[in-house]
Design goal:
Distance between the termini of chain A: 39 Å
CATH superfamily of the largest domain in chain B: Naphthalene 1,2-dioxygenase Alpha Subunit, Chain A, domain 1
CATH class of the largest domain in chain B: Alpha Beta
Radius of gyration of chain A: 15 Å
Number of strands of chain B: 21
CATH topology of the largest domain in chain B: Naphthalene 1,2-dioxygenase Alpha Subunit, Chain A, domain 1
Distance between the termini of chain B: 9 Å
Shape of chain B: globular
Helix content of chain A: 40-55%
Largest sheet of chain B: 7 strands, antiparallel
Radius of gyration of chain B: 23 Å
Order of helices and strands of chain A: HHHHHE
Low-confidence stretches of chain A: none
Oligomer: heterodimer
Helix content of chain B: 10-25%
Number of helices of chain A: 5
Shape of chain A: globular
Largest interface: A-B, 39 and 37 residues
CATH architecture of the largest domain in chain B: Alpha-Beta Complex
Strand content of chain B: 25-35%
Order of helices and strands of chain B: EHHEEEEEEEEEEHHEHHEEEEHEEEEHEH
Structural class of chain B: alpha+beta
Chain lengths: 113, 402
């Protein structure tokens, strides 16, 4: 059996590993861009995967401080931040972007990491 | 007290204000606003966190003032504002930027000023004879702060202090935890609209049931969804929300994790609400936020664990440079940060809905077909108030504001 590469997330969150490269994004503008360019199927599948582990994710991150967050926990937090970014798309609008709003490209998002 | 309705149309209806459209579309009126308002009053340009240490500075280009201003903390720790102009031949010293400096050096001939504004170095100075450098410092601009907000006044001798200008506002929000707030984002847009029309969209809750019918779907406006208060040239909207629905999964998780949510109403634990005389004056459980409209172009939203600053900077009668700075209670918990993110995203989404109406309103008003806007004094009284105060300044009749 081939040896898998080391995971990027804390132990117990292996089922989210495949989402890290696309969704563990540090900046609000990047997460919003990902939401706007992803298909609704991809968004729904990301949402379902992360939401399923949300209780465990919160329990795990509760042990840490933001100012002293190891890299695997940081990536886990970024996934949860992306969940919050796509939550309105799934739960309110049922599409990636907002209908009847000013075009996304006209709102410049500036945010710290 | 304020006059009811600047309009003169015969309409015997005390519940309605008529607001003339002309001031929203007239280039001549805009020039009068520039001179009578923006060059006379205190204007919010930033936060003290942006200039925390000696040498920290930022540059604001404010086209409504035809001016570019440097805000800088000096070597002595004092906060100062200067015109961004070299005393030599008037070249601009710095582009729009921010950072930490020891000197501001003009790119034209190399005249250099220290961060206290003093002229420090002139290349080939002997060719200027005996140059009185002490009198050739950067041109100062009046500056003051309130609750960490930096204000400037382009009038070389402001007719009143910032504290006097803000008036009752200072006591109304005393006690709000401004120092616990950290800027966590900023959204900006360049909008083809008159600045007043733009602001009008953010000073009433009447539009929520229509513009935000999707994002706030089961919004139940109580008979009047907000309370309106005016004090002099400024005003205040207290926003309530009966948000009677079963939260969706991610939404409900965010509400559970932190008491930071923009739409979190019917809060069983009322104790977390900020306490200040002017915030949730009626102590209603479904209080969401208080918005303070600080004349002329700064809207300050104070919520529980979040604060928003809308800045509306006119470019021309038809164009406004707008930004929202989003502040959240400074937390060191990744879990709370995740909860806050839901609130922030929801706020951003609803603001994009708000922005959809602005250009459409302004462009149709430009047709000149509509002479008066008709607004409900109970629901949209702060729209009337703002237009009335602007007109008072433009026509020089501000006595009633005192």
């Amino acid at each position: 059996m081939n040896r898998l590469p080391d995971g990027q997330l804390p132990k117990g969150f292996e089922s989210l590993e495949h989402l890290v490269n696309d969704w563990a994004l540090p900046r609000e503008a990047e997460r919003n861009q990902k939401r706007l360019t992803a298909s609704m199927d991809d968004i729904q599948s990301f949402y379902d995967c992360v939401l399923e582990l949300m209780d465990a994710l919160v329990a795990h991150l509760s042990e840490y401080k933001l100012s002293d967050l190891p890299d695997p926990e940081r990536k886990l937090m970024y996934l949860a931040l992306s969940l919050m970014e796509v939550a309105p798309a799934v739960e309110i609008y049922h599409q990636p972007d907002i209908p009847d709003a000013i075009p996304a490209a006209r709102l410049i998002i500036r945010s710290p990491v | 007290m304020l006059r009811r309705g600047p309009g003169t149309l015969p309409m015997n209806n005390e519940s309605v204000d008529l607001i003339p459209v002309e001031p929203n579309i007239s280039a001549d009126y805009f020039e009068r606003e520039r001179d009578a308002i923006f060059k006379q009053v205190w204007l919010k340009v930033g936060r003290i966190e942006e200039v925390a240490d000696s040498g920290d500075f930022f540059v604001r280009d404010l086209s409504v003032l035809n001016a570019s201003i440097i805000i800088v903390r000096g070597s002595d720790g004092e906060l100062r504002a200067f015109h961004n102009i070299c005393r030599h031949r008037g070249n601009r010293l710095k582009p729009i930027c921010a950072g930490r400096a020891k000197t501001f050096t003009c790119g034209f001939h190399g005249w250099a000023f220290n961060v206290d504004g003093d002229l420090a170095h002139v290349p080939l100075e002997e060719q200027f004879g005996t140059l009185d450098k002490a009198s050739l410092g950067l041109l100062p601009v009046a500056i003051d702060t309130w609750q960490g907000f930096i204000f400037i006044n382009l009038d070389p001798n402001p007719s009143e202090t910032l504290a006097s200008y803000l008036g009752e506002l200072t006591s109304l929000v005393e006690g709000y935890p401004f120092v616990q707030m950290a800027q966590s984002g900023q959204w900006t847009a360049d909008i083809q609209s008159n600045w007043k029309t733009f602001q009008d969209a953010f000073v009433e809750a009447y539009h929520v049931q229509s513009v935000h019918r999707r994002s706030i779907p089961d919004y139940h406006a109580t008979p009047v969804p907000s309370d309106l208060t005016t004090f002099g040239r400024h005003s205040n909207l207290t926003f309530y929300l009966d948000f009677q629905h079963s939260p969706q999964p991610a939404e409900s998780w965010a509400f559970k994790a932190g008491s930071m949510a923009f739409l979190q109403a019917n809060d069983a634990d009322n104790n977390a609400q900020p306490t200040a005389k002017g915030i949730n004056r009626q102590s209603k459980p479904n209080w969401i936020f208080d918005e303070f409209l600080i004349f002329p172009n700064f809207h300050l939203f104070l919520g529980e664990g979040w604060m928003l600053c809308h800045d509306f900077w006119p470019i021309s009668v038809d164009q406004t440079d707008w930004s929202v700075s989003y502040f959240l209670q400074d937390v060191d918990s990744p879990v709370l940060k995740i909860a806050q993110e839901y609130s922030k995203v929801t706020m951003r989404d609803t603001i994009r809905e708000d922005l959809a109406t602005i250009e459409s309103t302004h462009s149709s008003q430009r047709s000149g077909a509509l002479e008066y806007m008709l607004v409900s004094a109970a629901l949209e009284g702060l729209v009337s108030h703002h237009h009335r105060v602007v007109d008072a300044y433009v026509t020089g009749n501000t006595d009633f504001l005192k």
